[in-house]
Design goal:
About 35% of the residues lie in helices and about 20% in strands. It has about 400 residues and is α+β, with helices and mostly antiparallel strands. Among the domains are: about 80 residues, Alpha-Beta Plaits (2-Layer Sandwich), CATH 3.30.70.3160; about 80 residues, Hypothetical Protein Yqey, Chain: A, domain1 (Orthogonal Bundle). A hairpin with a 7-residue loop joins strand 16 and strand 17. The protein is globular, with a radius of gyration of 22 Å.
C-alpha cells in the first residue's frame, strides 16, 4: 500500500469544540496547510508576523504529508497573506486563552490508498467488517517516531537514563534525509566538531540551534541546562515519542499474548500485531480499557491488564519508572496519562476499488472515517488492507 502519494490523497479536517468569545484576547484562525508539519507552519507564520513560534498555540499536530485543516490561536491579529502558497488563513473568532489539545473532539479523514494488489483488494470487505465488529489496536504510528534520531536512538530514553550529552547529540548532530541543506550542514558540523564549541559556533549557519552551541561554548559541560533551552514544543515531542514507544510495546505484548487470531504488522517503533477477532468477553472488556502513558507518578498496579507487559517492557529498555522523573532537568517531564487500547472508526465508508492511475496495474480505494483525538488514520489504513497471499504468511504493509 502507498499512502500520501499526492497531498490530496490524505485530507484531514479537525473537529473542534471551539466557541468564539468576542471578549477574548486571543485571535483564532483556521489554518489550511499542505505538505507542511504543524510546527513548520507555526514557524513560518510566526516569522511573518514578528512573533516567536511558541506564541502560536495549535490545538493539535497534523501530519506533514497531506492536506489538513486545523485551528490555532495567536496573541495578535495576523497578516492574511501568509507569504507561502502552502498556507491559507481564515479568521474564525477570539478566545479567552490559547487553544490546546483539549479543544479537539476528533478528526475527519478522507484517504486514497494506492498501489493495492488483488489480494489486498479482495481482503477489504472482510477487513472492514472486522474493524466495525472488533475495533483496531490504538497504536501510535510512524508520525510519532520521527524524532527517533533516524534509528540512532530515542532522545526521551537518553533523558530518562540521565544521558543529557547523548540527548543533545541526537538533537544537534544527527542529520536526516528530510531536512533542508542548511540544517543538514549544521548537523554534520556538530557531528564533526562535537565538543569544540567555539569553532562550531563560529562555523554554524544562523539558526535556533546555534544559540544552544553558544550556551555550551560559555558553559561547557552543562548539558542538562542546555537541553532545557530547546524549543518547548520539541522537548515535548521528544518525551512524547519515547512515551508512545513504551505504550506501543506494552500493547503489542498484550495483543500478541491474548488475541486469538493475529496479523503481523510493524512500523518504525517495532512490532504492532493486530487482531482479526475477539471473544465477546474480550470485546466487552477491551473496549473500555486504558493502558498508561507512563510517567514517574504512574501506579502500574492500577492497570492490571497492562501491568505484566509494561513491567517487561521497562525491564527490556533498562529504564525504571522513577527515572521518568528526569532528575536534573527543570523544564522537561514525562507527564503520566492513559490511552484507550482499542479504536473504533466512526462513519467508515470504503468505496469500490478503482484502477490506480498513479501505479499501473494496481488498484486504489478511497476510505472516509472519523477518529477521536490522538488516534492515527494510518493505523486504520494498515488494517484495512491486511491480507495474506495463498499459502504464505501475512504481508507487512508500509504506508
Amino acid at each position: 500500500m502507498k499512502l500520501k502519494q499526492r497531498p490530496q490523497d490524505f485530507l484531514v479536517d479537525e473537529i473542534s469544540s471551539f466557541t468564539p468569545d468576542a471578549t477574548g484576547r486571543f485571535f483564532v484562525y483556521e489554518l489550511e496547510k499542505q505538505s507542511l508539519a504543524t510546527l513548520e507552519a507555526m514557524g513560518i507564520l510566526a516569522r511573518r508576523n514578528g512573533l516567536r513560534a511558541s506564541e502560536l498555540s495549535a490545538s493539535g499536530l497534523k501530519d506533514k504529508h497531506g492536506s489538513t485543516t486545523q485551528l490555532f490561536s495567536a496573541p495578535k491579529a495576523l497578516a492574511s497573506d501568509t507569504g507561502d502558497e502552502r498556507l491559507k488563513l481564515r479568521f474564525v473568532g477570539k478566545c479567552a486563552s490559547p487553544l490546546t489539545a483539549s479543544s479537539i473532539i476528533g478528526n475527519r479523514f478522507d484517504l486514497v490508498l494506492r498501489g493495492l494488489r488483488e489480494h489486498e483488494v479482495a481482503a477489504l470487505p472482510d477487513n472492514r467488517a472486522q474493524i466495525a465488529a472488533f475495533g483496531i489496536p490504538n497504536y501510535y504510528d510512524n508520525q510519532r517516531f520521527g524524532s527517533n534520531a533516524h534509528g540512532q536512538g530515542f532522545i526521551g530514553k537518553a533523558l530518562a537514563l540521565g544521558q543529557f550529552e547523548e540527548a543533545l547529540r541526537l538533537h544537534l548532530a544527527v542529520p536526516h534525509r528530510k531536512q533542508n541543506m542548511r540544517d543538514k550542514t549544521n548537523r554534520r558540523l556538530a557531528r564533526d566538531l562535537w565538543g569544540q564549541w567555539a569553532e562550531l559556533h563560529q562555523r554554524m549557519t544562523k539558526c535556533s540551534d546555534r544559540a544552544l552551541v553558544e550556551f555550551l561554548r560559555d558553559n561547557p559541560g552543562q548539558f542538562a541546562a542546555c537541553f532545557d533551552r530547546i524549543t518547548p514544543s520539541l522537548r515535548t515531542m521528544y518525551v512524547a515519542a519515547y512515551q508512545s514507544l513504551l505504550f506501543n510495546e506494552t500493547l503489542s505484548r498484550f495483543i500478541a499474548a491474548e488475541a486469538p487470531a493475529l496479523i503481523d504488522q510493524h512500523n518504525r517503533g517495532g512490532e504492532i500485531p493486530m487482531h482479526r477477532s475477539l471473544s465477546e468477553s474480550q470485546l466487552s472488556t477491551w473496549r473500555e480499557t486504558d493502558f498508561p502513558l507512563v510517567g514517574a507518578s504512574t501506579r502500574i498496579e492500577d492497570f492490571p491488564l497492562a501491568a505484566p507487559h509494561l513491567q517487561a517492557v521497562l525491564a527490556a529498555q533498562g529504564v525504571a519508572l522513577e527515572q521518568l522523573r528526569l532528575a536534573g532537568l527543570e523544564r522537561s517531564r514525562f507527564k503520566a496519562a492513559q490511552r484507550r487500547i482499542l479504536m473504533f472508526p466512526q462513519e467508515l465508508v470504503v468505496d469500490s476499488p478503482q484502477a490506480d492511475e498513479l501505479n499501473q496495474g494496481l488498484y486504489s480505494v478511497r476510505a472516509r472515517f472519523t477518529l477521536p483525538r490522538g488516534s492515527f488514520a494510518t493505523i486504520v489504513a494498515r488494517r484495512l488492507v491486511c491480507a495474506t497471499w495463498p499459502g504464505k504468511p501475512p504481508q507487512q504493509t508500509q504506508p
